[in-house]
Amino acid sequence: MNRKTLVLAAAMGLLAPVLAACGDSEGGSGDGDAIVVGTTDRFTASKEEGPAPVDPAYAYDVGTWNILRQTVQTLMVQPRGDGEPVPDAAESCGFTDAGNERYSCRLRDGLKFPGGDAITAADVKYSIDRARAIKADSGVSGLLSTIDTVETQGDREVIFHLTSADATFPYKLSTPVAGIVNPDKYAKDKLREGFEVDGSGPYTLETEVENNELVRATYVKNPDYKGALEVNNSKVEMVSFEDAEAMGEALEKAEIDVMTRSMSPEQIRELGNGTDGEIELVESPGLEIRYLAFNTEAESVKDKAVRQAMAQLVNRSELIGKVYGSQAEPLYSLVPAGITGHSNAFFNKYGDPNASKARDLLEKAGVSTPVKLTLHYTTDHYGPATKAEFEQLSKQLNDSGLFETDIEGAPWSTYRPAGQKGKYDVYGMGWFPDFPDADGFIAPFLAEDNFLNTPYANAEIRNDLIPESRRQADRLSASDSLTEIQDIVAADVPLLPLWQGKQYIAARDDITGTAYMLNSSSTLQLWELGRGVSG
Q1: What are the distances in angstroms from CA 208 to CA 67, 269, 355, 407, 471?
Q2: Least CB-packed of 168, 263, 378, 394 within 10 Å?
């Protein structure tokens, strides 16, 4: 029978893998053929869809971030098993004042870019200032919004002066937007187009591109890497597949060694219950969330009562049961369960699905029914079950008699820009957190220059509650502010949370390190993989 490895949750909701895949105790040899990893992520570079998908100053989705996390080094990094970030390019970092507004890092000695150029504090300053100045429309520079100025002292000291206290700043320095780039390769005032990456991370990158699309990425162990990570292999190849079915067939035929996102619910069930002992399914808790986003200035959903009625009608348990089964859990807040500060704000306000209550909301607001809407979804970014999910959502709304909805899908390359430009009234999105803290589920949606480019703006959230929550180094102490934010979102419904998913990978049984391949933020940690003894 297929072995199924469970990676269990630790206290405070962070992952702590406790069951290793077969052979993990031996560790990878770092030798032999490349380990081949499959994905359904698609990476395109074009004028219309974004010419610089892997520039740290632009990239802001889980797929491109996973490319950068292997190749571009950051001052801090999330450690194996999660927890507080630890120094990587830095040898030490910390706040140097009582108010958490001055943060200093000292670089490791001997850091180098590919080609041998020494990395200095000036390069760190250049990289951070560049991302802030370019201010790409992806919204990723928002992670650096609390920086006022960056100062250097000598070649190894970098000091960040913040506009306000930000206890989450060490986490932000572990994200790819804070990646250290070579000034000779990355212009100060424009993005670097294409798929070339030059960084001091654990791997260097070789790419195979066809028709402006990255079809194969080869990660070669960087002999000059100096940091906190132990690299257990010499080479990893990542191959993009058209769909989950093709990726699964490649795993069965041993054409790839590991299968990552996104597998279909059917594949996960079959792998978990199958009899092929040569393939192992690894399951772990996840912080991935799915939600509906609203263009709150669009005529169809501008009235808050329409959005509230949808919140009153959606049956999350039924939706998950019919589409995802045990692979997801209902979500009643932007902040998922397992994160300090989570509250069930939407359940507290709306309770169980109730068509009568939804009708009352619309009638009191004078909204004519049925409300006609198109629910938009992406066909190729969040997995093959997305269409079925939206069919169920549409059915639930229509069965109430209060809505008349249809659904419309589009590939991510056109879907994402259309959402940012406000072309969709209602559309589905997913979120893989920048870091495992409640701020990583709130600020990207609700702060100024948010990544959705949403017109919704709440002054109390932006000016008072987010800054107040960031002043608390003890995240439990931030719970009151975080709860108030979630209550406001539940009342205004600029976003409608749907579900929180588990994480899965599948691997041939001679691959080691699979229990650590994904952290709670869905970061691929390819350096953990190795080859061991089959069985």
Answers
A1: 14, 33, 52, 35, 45
A2: 394
pLDDT digits (tens, 9 = 90+) for 229-258: 999 999 999 999 999 999 999 999 999 999
Q: Does the global pTM surpass 0.90?
A: no
Q: Residue 201: is its pLDDT beyond 70?
A: yes
CA-CA distances (angstroms) from residue 108 to 150, 222, 227, 233, 393? 18, 16, 8, 23, 51
- What letters, b where the CB count within 10 A reaches 16 and e where it falls short, cover 91-119? bebebeeeebbbbbbbbbeebebbeebeb
Residue 272 has pLDDT above 90, yes or no: no
Query: What confidence tens digit (pLDDT) does each residue in 28-59 have?
Result: 333 458 999 999 988 999 877 688 999 999 99
The predicted pLDDT at position 98 comes to 87
Using the 3D structure, point to which of 191, 221, 246 is the last residue of a domain. Answer: 191
More confident residue, 412 or 8: 412
Of 373, 372, 389, the closest CA to residue 291 belongs to 389
pLDDT at 7: 55
In terms of Cβ atoms closer than 10 Å to its own Cβ (0-12, 13-18, 19+), residue 436 is buried
517 within some domain: no
Sign of the dihedral defined by the CA atoms of residues 351, 356, 358, 362, in that order: negative
Buried b (16+ CB within 10 A) or exposed e, 35-69: bbbbbbbbbbbeeeebbbbbbbbbbbbbbbbbbbb
Domain at 384, CATH number: 3.10.105.10
Domain region containing 468: 286-502
Q: Residue 6 falls within a domain, yes or no?
A: no
Do 180 and 301 lie in one domain? The reply is no
Report the alpha-carbon distance of residue 504 to residue 281 in Å, rounded.
Answer: 7
Residue 14 DSSP class: -
Whether 30 maps to a domain, the answer reads no
If one counts the domains in the chain, the total is 2
CA atoms within 13 A on the CB side of 192: 20
Tell me the longest C-alpha to C-alpha distance in the chain.
69
pLDDT band per the 50, 70, 90 thresholds, residue 534: very low
**Which DSSP string corresponds to 206-228?**
EEEEETTEEEEEEEEE-TT--SS
pLDDT exceeds cutoff 90 at 71: yes
User: What's the CATH number where 108 sits?
Assistant: 3.90.76.10
Q: Which of 216, 279, 271, 209 is nearest to 39 (CA)?
A: 216
395 falls within a domain? yes
- Sign for the CA dihedral angle at 114, 118, 121, 123 comes to negative
Pairing type for strands 203-210 and 213-221 reads antiparallel
Query: 292 and 187: one domain?
Result: no
The residue with greater pLDDT, 9 or 493, is: 493
